[in-house]
């Protein structure tokens, strides 16, 4: 009785155990939970947008154009800055990378906790705009309109982005140092799991790209409040300077949201194909190529901004070339699936039919948009909206969901409900195609993005109604995902250490892992995806506590 009371007295409080934790796994879980909350908030804004577009003509759910502008600004900003980037880099990255490389924690645990709370603070600042006035400038905040934007909306947006950028940089530094300095013995770079490879490249993109965004929005704030004229053409400034700075970060930011997703796909496919990954080195080094080329394509967003044609052609070429390393990954995944013992579990459906199928559609439309003549015609139309949603929602979001279900047993110690999981997949898959595929058509018909009324005689109403119905289906899928998680946590079967028979290091420890990941330091003796070829991949070298 006395021993039990003593143990209870020593148990840390919730604040110390979670909110002040330096355990990378708990920080990753907190990133994931908060990120999903932002996902629902950003998704609610999307449903408002789609409901407004259900019928042409008079407003339905938003009273005026400014309110509609505020809705799509909050939708885009929340989904990019508060959900997709933190979920793929911080939530999955924090939980998985130290275990995957054989480390007991991140390199800088306290800085890791600080980065999380900066992320929460940035989110709170963003949400405060619902009270102080939402920005109406879109997630790009182009001058000169943004300089004259009334109220505090833009100022709050800039402050939030600065805080989130600092969190992102701290997280990137932590990942880079962890991978370079804390790998287990025998874990060479050519034995790194492919998710770690993609996350490492992503961290470098964040480290080098985020300061450009910080410079762009800081000078924008100076133009608004301190009398500078960086973007005031009448006073000798140049509004295109902002676009160059903004897209120098924001196009590589697309790969911040895509590369970790590709890493998740590379982890799941060989496990459920029961084959070694085809072309390990090609997949790994193509991530480096994407990271490098991502900084050479930014100006393809500016073909209609007044940039000389001769300047646009090199960016057209690089925008087409960057499709090559992505195609290398797709073909290597297909080769892995070829004649494999494929088991289409929920994670496998999300990364094959989901990511590979829908990302390929987005990638092919991206090749069209990379061509200057086509981009001039399609720029700022719903064709572009369809393209980037197929890449980021049809692609990256499918990988996020596949990763959640794949590592759910490892994180929670419970198996998820397979029937519910597949229901979630089909609702997401059908809803995504119904929502975004018709946008190709209405874009080619001439419907511009960022408008809340359209001509009922232009033949766009049926396509918009299909898209709106699809968005409701996605909303139902999101609710079903939460139901599946709750049901699985309550009544799911107890998960073994390695329910999938996977070969990477995180599956060698218990589900969920112990506090410091490994009781004894592993010694890596083989590559991570050699199914059936290596009997003993990991041996114990010494205890972490020794």
From TrEMBL:
Superkingdom: Bacteria
Annotated pathway: Energy metabolism; oxidative phosphorylation
Subcellular location: Cell membrane; Membrane
Family, per entry: Belongs to the heme-copper respiratory oxidase family.
Function, as annotated: Cytochrome c oxidase is the component of the respiratory chain that catalyzes the reduction of oxygen to water. Subunits 1-3 form the functional core of the enzyme complex. CO I is the catalytic subunit of the enzyme. Electrons originating in cytochrome c are transferred via the copper A center of subunit 2 and heme A of subunit 1 to the bimetallic center formed by heme A3 and copper B.
InterPro entries, A to Z: Cyt_c_oxase-like_su1_dom, Cyt_c_oxase-like_su1_sf, Cyt_C_Oxase_1, Cyt_c_Oxase_su1_BS, Cyt_c_oxidase_su1_bac
GO biological process: electron transport coupled proton transport; oxidative phosphorylation; respiratory electron transport chain
Species, as recorded: Aneurinibacillus thermoaerophilus
EC annotation from Swiss-Prot or TrEMBL: 7.1.1.9
Keywords attached to this entry: Cell membrane, Copper, Electron transport, Heme, Iron, Membrane, Metal-binding, Respiratory chain, Translocase, Transmembrane, Transmembrane helix, Transport
Annotated transmembrane regions: 29-49, 78-102, 114-134, 154-182, 194-222, 246-265, 277-299, 305-328, 349-370, 390-408, 420-442, 462-487
Signal peptide extent: none
Lineage: Bacteria, Bacillati, Bacillota, Bacilli, Bacillales
Main location: membrane
Alphabetized GO MF terms: cytochrome-c oxidase activity; heme binding; metal ion binding
Protein name per the record: Cytochrome c oxidase subunit 1
Catalytic activity, reaction form: 4 Fe(II)-[cytochrome c] + O2 + 8 H(+)(in) = 4 Fe(III)-[cytochrome c] + 2 H2O + 4 H(+)(out)
Residue ranges occupied by any Cytochrome oxidase subunit I profile domain in the UniProt entry: 18-525
Membrane-protein topology: Multi-pass membrane protein
One cellular-component annotation, GO: plasma membrane
A Pfam family reported for this protein in Swiss-Prot or TrEMBL: COX1
Gene: ctaD
């Amino acid at each position: 009785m006395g021993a039990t009371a003593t143990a209870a007295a020593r148990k840390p409080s919730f604040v110390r155990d979670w909110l002040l934790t330096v355990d990378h796994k708990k920080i990753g879980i907190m990133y994931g939970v908060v990120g999903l909350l932002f996902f629902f908030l950003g998704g609610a804004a999307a449903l408002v947008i789609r409901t407004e577009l259900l019928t042409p003509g008079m407003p339905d759910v938003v009273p005026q154009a400014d309110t509609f502008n505020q809705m799509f600004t909050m939708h885009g900003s929340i989904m990019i800055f508060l959900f997709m980037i933190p979920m793929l880099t911080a939530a999955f990255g924090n939980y998985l990378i130290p275990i995957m490389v054989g480390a007991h924690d991140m390199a800088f645990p306290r800085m890791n906790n600080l980065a999380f709370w900066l992320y929460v603070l940035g989110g709170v600042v963003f949400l405060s705009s619902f009270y102080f006035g939402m920005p109406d400038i879109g997630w790009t905040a182009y001058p000169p309109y943004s300089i004259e934007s009334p109220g505090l909306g833009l100022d709050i947006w800039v402050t939030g982005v600065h805080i989130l950028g600092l969190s992102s940089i701290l997280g990137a530094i932590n990942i880079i140092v962890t991978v370079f300095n804390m790998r287990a013995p025998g874990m060479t770079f050519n034995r790194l799991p492919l998710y770690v490879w993609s996350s490492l490249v992503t961290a470098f993109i964040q480290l080098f790209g985020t300061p450009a965004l910080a410079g762009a929005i800081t000078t924008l704030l100076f133009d608004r409040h301190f009398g500078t004229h960086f973007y005031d053409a009448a006073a000798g400034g140049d509004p295109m300077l902002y676009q160059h700075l903004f897209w120098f970060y924001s196009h590589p930011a697309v790969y911040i949201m895509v590369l970790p997703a590709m890493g998740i796909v590379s982890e799941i496919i060989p496990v459920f194909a029961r084959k070694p990954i085809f072309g390990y080195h090609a997949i790994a080094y193509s991530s480096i190529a994407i990271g490098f080329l991502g900084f050479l394509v930014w100006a393809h967003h500016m073909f209609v901004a007044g940039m000389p044609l001769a300047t646009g052609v090199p960016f057209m070429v690089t925008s087409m070339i960057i499709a090559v390393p992505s195609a290398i990954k797709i073909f290597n995944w297909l080769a892995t699936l070829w004649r494999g013992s494929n088991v289409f579990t929920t994670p496998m459906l999300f990364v094959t039919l989901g990511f590979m199928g829908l990302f390929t559609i987005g990638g092919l439309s991206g090749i069209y948009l990379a061509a200057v003549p086509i981009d001039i015609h399609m720029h700022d139309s719903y064709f572009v909206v369809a393209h980037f949603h197929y890449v980021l929602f049809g692609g990256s979001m499918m990988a996020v969901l596949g990763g959640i279900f794949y590592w759910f047993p490892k994180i929670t110690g419970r198996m998820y409900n397979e029937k519910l999981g597949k229901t979630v997949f089909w609702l997401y898959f059908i809803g995504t195609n119904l929502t975004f595929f018709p946008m190709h058509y209405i874009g080619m018909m001439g419907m511009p993005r960022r408008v809340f009324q359209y001509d009922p005689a232009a033949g766009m109403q049926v396509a918009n109604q299909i898209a709106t119905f699809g968005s409701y289906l996605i909303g139902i899928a999101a609710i079903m995902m939460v139901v599946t998680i709750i049901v699985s946590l309550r009544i799911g079967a107890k998960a073994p250490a390695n329910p999938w028979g996977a070969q990477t290091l995180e599956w060698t420890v218990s589900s969920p892992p112990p506090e410091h990941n490994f009781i004894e330091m592993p010694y890596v003796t083989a590559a991570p995806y050699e199914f059936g070829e290596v009997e003993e991949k990991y041996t114990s070298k010494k205890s972490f506590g020794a």
